[in-house]
Amino acid sequence: MSHPLTCDVVVVGAGMTGAACALYAARSGLDVVVVDRGAVAGGTTGAGEGNLLVSDKEPGPELDLALLSLRLWSELAQEYGTFIEYEAKGGVVVATSPGGLTALERLAAGQRAAGVSAEPVDGDALYALEPHLAPGLPGAVHYPQDAQVMPALAAAHLLRASGARLLTGRRVTGVLRGPEGAVLGVRTDRGDLHAPALVNAAGTWGGEVAALAGAVLPVLPRRGFVLVTEPLPRLVHHKVYAAGYVADVASDSAVLQTSPVVEGTAAGPILIGASRERVGFDRSFSLPALRALAADATRLFPFLADVHAIRAYLGFRPYLPDHLPAVGPDPRVPGLFHACGHEGAGIGLSTGTGSLVAQVLTGRTPDLDLTPFSPDRFAEEAA
């Protein structure tokens, strides 16, 4: 090859997933460069709540990835807990009707079989966990494994800990490929980077990065808002959400869906989600979405009716048509690896994704079967 190598692997994307890929690749002995057209955590990562969840995953490949990721997060928390604001607070999924409780307990039974801690909670015990919930709720399931990090801090800290060279404000404009089509590096608006491996961790822009390398990856954005209240004493102790949230996450509907997700933070404000809309990259403010969030949250926690919301922010969750991310090597382009399309679960799934990508980058057998996450699984639809 005529050009000297810049590094062993270029990671495109300095969000949470790119940071995790960089950390685990560097720990595997690779020399890593991370490039991003914006800032660290400038995309979906900076608009997230930092949830590390198993509670909202049905048994299957995504739950397996979540359990692997949570184990890795707890290891990282031993090293960097205070730097990333890791909080093992647990989740409480609340049924708002007897039928909802039956469905929730059925989901929890399947999750337990897959290795999740899921503890049924009836009325009295529920109000001991969350005293300020609306009265008369039939029951809930407590998920002690659910945790949280501060996503922008976590991405920045893992990038720093990786020792990777970080090139922000630099746009990838092309992928350099050899005569057989193999990756030789990337072209940027500020010079070429030469490497035999490229990791696409570009989040909602993952489809565009794949296209530069000659591969089809149908990543789409799904908009979501988060409401932030004034600072309060700790009145909400867990991540609390209504059982309908699991169905909304799995839904294919393009219309506005809201299901209440309420959680306190160490700093005092309460965060209220979660809305989902397929509106492309429309950043306009949506009063209907915020009204629906506020109404939903107040039904769960009536005290919120008297609390001021001080701001709202929005982000775009990158999703693929079957709601599983693309993780691992792209068989169509030698040297191209994907780590994107995690929808709203990217913070939680980033560590497992980064570890699996580092394993295949270095020729090891990955901890999970990557077939369900194969980047070319949509090729026939796209053709």
Q: Briefly note the structural class of the backbone.
A: alpha/beta
- Globular, elongated, flat, extended or rod-shaped: what is the shape? globular
The secondary-structure element order is EHEEHEHEHEEHEEEEEHEEHEEHEEEHH
Q: Can you give the mean pLDDT?
A: 92
* Helix coverage percent: 25-40%
Q: How far do the termini sit from each other?
A: 33 Å
Numbering strands along the chain, what is their spatial order in the largest sheet?
5-6-4-14-15-16-13-17
Q: Topology, pairings included?
A:
Blueprint: E1 9-12, H1 16-27, E2 32-36, E3 51-52, H2 61-84, E4 91-95, H3 98-113, E5 119-121, H4 123-129, E6 139-143, E7 147-148, H5 151-162, E8 165-168, E9 172-177, E10 183-188, E11 191-194, E12 198-200, H6 206-212, E13 220-229, E14 239-242, H7 244-250, E15 257-264, E16 270-276, H8 287-300, E17 309-319, E18 326-329, E19 336-340, H9 346-361, H10 379-382
Parallel strand pairs: 1-2, 1-12, 2-8, 4-14, 12-19
Antiparallel strand pairs: 3-7, 4-6, 5-6, 9-10, 10-11, 13-16, 13-17, 14-15, 15-16, 18-19
Helix pairs in contact: 1-5, 1-9, 2-9
